[in-house]
């Protein structure tokens, strides 16, 4: 029969990779926990409506990338493609506005998007994310950026760059879009045909053009950053001063956009040049309009999400602590089977890591296996018990009851 394989765009996390992920998780716990962020887990699927509203009908995610299904009772559910909308839903559902604000939450969870698989782009992938709900302050935005920057640094993610911008308010953006469209129309004959054809559809695209004529024209184009309302401009200056003070380097990128109406003010993205085409490591920003859109009171909030797989690719080697085996319990004869089984249990209860022979190997095979595992001691259980120190090769007979105390004494001396 043909073997069944994991679905396209998914992958198994095998033990060696699981160990690297555990290292990443413990760094996230330390960095985010140290700033008062607390872990949250939401369901792997949600009402489709949550993402339609909370990610935005017009986005690539909602248009093309969602795994949506009927739950059998006529309700439409979707495997979560991202974490911000679910966390905001949970904030509202559990009345977290009554808690001291902001409520600071982080997650490390799998997400699902129907995308064309390639290196760094999967259909099931993991993100670590942080959200601070209930604070409008520039400090919140700057702190979130610093936290992601520190997480990337502790992981040794290479060649990172931070791009930063401010989107102002939806209203400023609408006015700006009109101004930019008017500018492009007025300079239509100094634009490439492709850009000229897309003026009304997506005027921002003109900034990404590579041909010399269009680029020259765009140098004189108005930028959104240049049109911010005074209080938004002030907020942005405050964020930048905090980042400067913290020594976090960034490039201003007026073209950094998050296409959604509920995004406000700060936006940012970390990329890594070590990644190639899929260079985005993580990003986020302020989303003061989202909670209201989900039926809550107007609530300022900001956050970010970063892809685990891309972080691990860009991090290269991560020092993973070797797995310890204090004791391997070998069988000298079948008669010792019960004592051997119980010795392994007792050793674990005493705080040692202990493994038991489970494959019916010969005594020689068991010793070779214990060596491969890196066991510090092997107890050979038969009528008598012998304890072998695998480092020194020393071996002596002793009472069954003396095995664990002897190892513990050895551990303490070591
Ligand atoms: P991209 O431009 O690469 O599609 P995105 O803008 O869709 O990224 P976000 O929605 O901001 O990404 O998600 C944050 C992070 O999650 C990304 O920077 C990336 O590291 C990771 N990510 C997003 N989609 C995928 C995916 N399909 N596979 C693996 N990681 C992903
Ligand atoms: Mg994407």
Description:
By secondary structure, the chain is α+β, with helices and mostly antiparallel strands. Helix content is 37%, strand content 22%. The protein is built from 14 helices and 16 strands. Strand 14 and strand 15 form a beta hairpin. The longest helix has 19 residues. The radius of gyration is 28 Å and the shape is elongated. 35% of the residues are buried. It binds adenosine-5'-triphosphate and magnesium ion. Adenosine-5'-triphosphate binds next to strand 6, strand 10, strand 11 and helix 11.
Keyword list:
414 residues; alpha+beta; five-stranded mixed β-sheet; 22% strand; binds adenosine-5'-triphosphate
Write the layout of secondary structure elements.
Elements: H1 15-33, E1 38-39, E2 45-47, H2 48-56, H3 60-64, E3 68-70, E4 76-79, H4 84-93, E5 103-112, E6 124-133, H5 138-155, E7 160-166, H6 170-186, H7 193-197, H8 212-219, H9 230-246, E8 251-252, E9 264-272, E10 280-286, H10 290-293, E11 301-307, H11 308-315, E12 325-331, H12 337-349, E13 354-356, H13 363-373, E14 375-381, E15 385-389, E16 395-398, H14 403-413
Parallel strand pairs: 1-5, 7-8, 12-13, 12-14
Antiparallel strand pairs: 2-4, 3-4, 5-6, 6-11, 7-9, 9-10, 10-11, 14-15, 15-16
The protein binds adenosine-5'-triphosphate (ATP) and magnesium ion (MG).
């Amino acid at each position: 029969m043909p073997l069944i394989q994991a679905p396209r765009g998914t992958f198994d996390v095998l033990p060696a990779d699981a160990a690297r992920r555990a290292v990443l998780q413990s760094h996230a716990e330390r960095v985010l926990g140290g700033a008062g962020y607390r872990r949250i887990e939401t369901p792997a699927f949600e009402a489709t409506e949550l993402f339609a509203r909370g990610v935005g009908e017009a986005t690539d995610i909602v248009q093309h990338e969602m795994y949506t299904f009927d739950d059998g009772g006529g309700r439409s559910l979707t495997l979560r493609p991202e974490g911000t909308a679910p966390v905001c839903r949970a904030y509202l559902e559990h009345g977290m506005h009554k808690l001291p604000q902001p409520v600071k939450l982080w997650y490390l969870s799998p997400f699902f998007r129907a995308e064309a698989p390639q290196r760094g782009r999967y259909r099931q992938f993991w993100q670590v994310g942080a959200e601070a709900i209930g604070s409008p302050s520039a400090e919140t935005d700057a702190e979130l950026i610093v936290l992601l920057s520190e997480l990337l640094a502790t992981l040794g993610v290479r060649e990172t760059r931070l791009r930063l911008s401010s989107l102002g308010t939806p209203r400023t953006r609408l006015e700006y879009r009109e101004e930019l469209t008017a500018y492009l129309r007025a300079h239509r004959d100094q634009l490439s045909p492709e850009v000229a054809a897309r003026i009304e559809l997506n005027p921002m695209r003109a900034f990404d053009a590579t041909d010399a004529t269009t680029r020259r024209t765009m140098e004189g184009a108005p930028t959104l950053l240049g049109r911010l309302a005074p209080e938004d401009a002030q907020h942005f200056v405050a964020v930048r001063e905090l980042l400067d003070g913290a020594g976090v380097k960034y490039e201003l990128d007026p073209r950094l956009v998050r296409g959604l109406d509920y995004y406000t003010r700060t936006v940012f993205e970390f990329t890594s040049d070590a990644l190639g085409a899929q260079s985005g490591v993580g990003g986020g920003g302020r989303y003061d309009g989202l909670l209201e859109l989900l039926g809550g009171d107007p609530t300022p909030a900001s956050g970010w999400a970063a892809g685990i797989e891309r972080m691990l690719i860009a991090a290269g080697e991560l020092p993973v602590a070797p797995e310890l085996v204090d004791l391997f319990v070998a069988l000298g004869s079948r008669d010792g089977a019960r004592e051997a089984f119980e010795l392994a249990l007792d050793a674990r209860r005493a705080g040692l890591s202990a493994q038991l022979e489970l494959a019916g190997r010969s005594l020689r095979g068991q010793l070779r296996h214990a060596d491969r595992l890196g066991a510090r001691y092997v107890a050979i259980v038969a009528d008598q018990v012998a304890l072998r120190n695998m480092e020194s090769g020393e071996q002596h007979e002793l009472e069954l009851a003396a095995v664990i105390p002897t190892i513990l004494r050895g551990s303490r001396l070591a």
